[in-house]
Amino acid sequence: MTTLETPSAAPTPRRSITIRGPRFEYAAVPRYWIAGSALMTHIANGVNLLFPHGERFFVRSVRHYLDRIDDETLRAEVRAFFGQEGRHAHAHEEYFDALRAQGYDIDPFLRTYQKIFDWLERIHPPAFRLAVTVALEHYTAILAEGAFVERAFEQNVHPTMARLLRWHAAEEIEHKAVAFDVLARIAPGYPLRMTGMALATLGLGIFWIAATGTLLAQDMRAGRALRSHDVRVMQARERSIGRDVFLRGLKEYARPDFHPHDRDNSDLATAFLSTLERDAPVA
After folding, report:
1. Which has the closest alpha carbon to 263: 255, 271, 274?
2. φ, ψ for residue 157, nearest 5 deg
3. pTM of the entire predicted model
4. pLDDT at res. 234
5. 20 to 30 A Cα–Cα from 65, which one of 128, 236, 255, 275?
6. Distance CA 118, CA 122 (A)
7. How far apart are CA 63 and CA 61, in angstroms?
8. pLDDT in tens, 60-95
9. What interhelical angle do 243-253 and 228-241 show, nearest 10?
10. What is the pLDDT averaged over residues 31-39?
11. Distance between the two ends of the chain, CA-based, in angstroms?
């Protein structure tokens, strides 16, 4: 193996990455848009709250090294990665307005989350921030694959939110190797990659639980208590999205010779993105 942690006999495969600009109207999205379940909806809403600031962090982490990438193909992929992540952040921020209109006070959480996130970004060196980005990109890719394979976006999910999440998931699969390939060229090394995964896992877990808890607590204060239906839906969803997908992804990532394209799931992204042809790509 080379120091880039990819097989020396197998060059990194290239994938076409397209910047798209779909539009979403959230006014008709109900309060509980996954199977009428408050619990499952707010688990999804919780990670929605994390996306915009997190994805801008991804862009900053990769952009820091843009002038050190001499591979023109990779530079083009990086720029497309910036475009996709920027549009994801914008689309999820527009959904924040729908949550506010439903009466959720999300801004105190967002301010605290961003303040802590920005502090963590300041105290860690650029290479470590890139390693965290690579780990979080792997999480989004394996969760996207699991959701497509198990058809999780097609089971009692409001069509607007299903389209938003499927578009986001498909593009996460499409660009899943970009940050990894930058890290492999700038700061190769297994210890750095796995240390970044450790902080990424801890941070994602803490922030996601906090965001979900914030929304559920506001529902409960407003007299909207959880029902047994919510728990049953959550249990069914846990089975449908496949907890084994997460464990498999972590096991794959821990291999010293891991590369995101070792597992080719691009067909999952292509099958959905072909339906977005009516949304003209952005040049």
Report:
1. 255
2. -115, 135
3. 0.88
4. 56
5. 255
6. 6
7. 6
8. 999 999 999 999 999 999 999 999 999 999 999 999
9. 40
10. 91
11. 38
Q: Which residues of 178-199 are buried (b: 16+ CB within 10 A; e: fewer)?
A: bbbbbbbbebeeeebbeebbeb
Long-range contacts for 154-157 (Cβ within 8 Å, ≥24 apart)? 155/35, 155/240, 156/34, 156/35, 156/36, 157/33, 157/34, 157/35
Encoded tokens for 102: 């439903």
267: left (phi over 0), alpha (psi -120 to 50) or beta: alpha
Q: Residue 10 corresponds to which tokens in the numbers above?
A: 């197998």
Q: How would you write the chain as a 3-class SS string?
A: CCCCCCCCCCCCCCCCCCCCCCCCCCCCCCCCCECCCHHHHHHHHHHHHHHHHHHHHHHHHHHCCHHHCCCHHHHHHHHHHHHHHHHHHHHHHHHHHHHHHCCCCCHHHHHHHHHHHHHHHHHCCHHHHHHHHHHHHHHHHHHHHHHHHCCHHHCCECHHHHHHHHHHHHHHHHCCCHHHHHHHHHCCCHHHHHHHHHHHHHHHHHHHHHHHHHHHHHHHHCCCCCCHHHHHHHHHHHHHHCHHHHHHHHHHHCCCCCCHHHCCCHHHHHHHHHHHCCCCCCC
* Burial class of residue 10 (count of CB atoms within 10 Å of its CB; 0-12, 13-18, 19+): exposed
202-228: pLDDT as tens digits: 999 999 999 999 999 999 887 776 665
Residue type, 245: V
User: In this structure, what token pair is assigned to residue 266?
Assistant: 């691009």
Cβ neighbours around 63 below 10 Å, total: 14
Place of tokens 């069914």: 236
